[in-house]
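quick one before i forget lol
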Amino acid sequence: MTRLSGTAVRLTILIGDNDTWHHKPLCTEIVHRAHAAGLAGASVFHGVEGFGASSLVHTARLLSLNDNLPVAIIIVDQGERIRAFLPQLDELVSEGLVTLDEVEVIRYVGRGNHR
């Protein structure tokens, strides 16, 4: 079980909902690789509206024909573990934004040891 407290790093990956890796959602591949790398945790958040480097606004509004909504994948762990994971993102993310922020972990508690 991963223990996490104090200073950590938050990795944020912003991609589109239509982004894929070998015919499956890119966000799924990133989460599965983060899990396989033993990182403390990852969450995927689907946005309702946004734009990126293309300046094309993507929205979930009813009249919009654009369905490539923004997706944020958030991963938090110790800095060296996050940085060791970055080369995998170089392979996976061809379009998007990847950021790192230092964060302070106040509480990280699981429901039990699932392994």
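fyi The radius of gyration is 15 Å.
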